[in-house]
């Protein structure tokens, strides 16, 4: 058994956990971050870095350096419905340092944050160390139990943070109240080759055969095929050949490229969850990111909401640590700051599920473009407003060193 003590122990070395750890350590707080994997080299699918997050890196003084990492720019979002193309969002209208979505491998983003954080003597990242539970005494959380490469680890802390994702074990251990909103879809993710000279814009295509999202990742398309929840086994039973035919029917230009799918191992299932805690905290514990509010993949906003949670929590709690351990009212202030953005974003996603995705997936022989798409396509001003809603979010957070 290894025993450690720190001011703040964070479970989860994803965007929320690493950013919070770095920003607290930047303010002089002693931080330990637990990451269950030995490295970040995994096939993440949420690789979207929105203008709000890029702006935060600019305020930290790191944007130019961050953008030396491999990435592709998505300046506009378009969708084609039954052969008609519509423009939905134009990020070039945003008055920000980087008016686009950067499609950046998440392992590069996490390595970048970790490198900056490791330069601070009061920051410690424990990899191959998985949080397993909470240490509680008299109703107050006082630490985290974990399993590391060398065996059990107990980390006692003034504040513990659950940033360990939508299946958070710390959230489960806390018994905080969770509201399951539900989602009518799941998603298959896969890669298809992309040739130079192909359309570089990320896009969505919908017709009577289904809905397909293509994200430009340079040499390949990161593709998402949403389908009605509960249908995954039926799609697999129909066979891989039928799956390829389905993709080609949605996007005939990909007919030859689907040959790249050799087996179902090349197709990953994302079980979509939309839920949120009604209370993000208890004495000694705070939940942020997907642990507090699991988002639909629509808009790719999950990472960016998590980073915004981290920035707000660091700004609110950093000064508190200089006076002692955070109290419940301080943790409540974080939820008060961030809950509205998460709640409204989820409401928009659920509306998109009901009004756009589910009708598209149930279209049958013909899919008429929704009238709202025609209105948005006609008015660039609306495309700018949607770009702000998607790219900046409802409550963009900022950073200024004190």
Key words describing this protein structure:
402 residues, alpha+beta, FAD/NAD(P)-binding domain, 8-stranded mixed β-sheet, 7-stranded mixed β-sheet, 11 helices
Topology:
Layout: E1 2-11, H1 15-26, E2 31-35, E3 48-49, H2 51-60, H3 63-66, E4 72-74, E5 76-81, E6 84-90, E7 101-103, H4 106-118, E8 123-127, E9 130-137, E10 140-148, E11 151-162, H5 169-174, E12 178-180, E13 185-193, E14 203-207, E15 210-216, E16 220-228, H6 232-238, H7 240-250, E17 268-270, E18 275-277, E19 281-282, E20 285-287, E21 293-294, H8 302-321, H9 328-361, H10 371-378, H11 380-391
Parallel strand pairs: 1-2, 1-11, 2-8, 5-14, 11-20
Antiparallel strand pairs: 3-7, 4-7, 5-6, 9-10, 10-11, 12-18, 13-16, 13-17, 14-15, 15-16, 18-21, 19-20
Helix pairs in contact: 1-4, 1-8, 6-7, 8-9
Description of the molecule:
This protein has 402 residues and is an alpha+beta fold. Among the domains are: 193 residues, FAD/NAD(P)-binding domain (3-Layer(bba) Sandwich); 85 residues. Helix content is 34%, strand content 29%. The strands form four sheets. Strands 1, 2, 8, 9, 10, 11, 19 and 20 form an eight-stranded mixed sheet that branches. Helix 1 runs parallel beside helix 4, helix 1 runs parallel beside helix 8 and helix 6 packs across helix 7. The longest helix is centred in the last third of the chain and has 34 residues. The radius of gyration is 22 Å and the shape is globular. The mean pLDDT is 93.
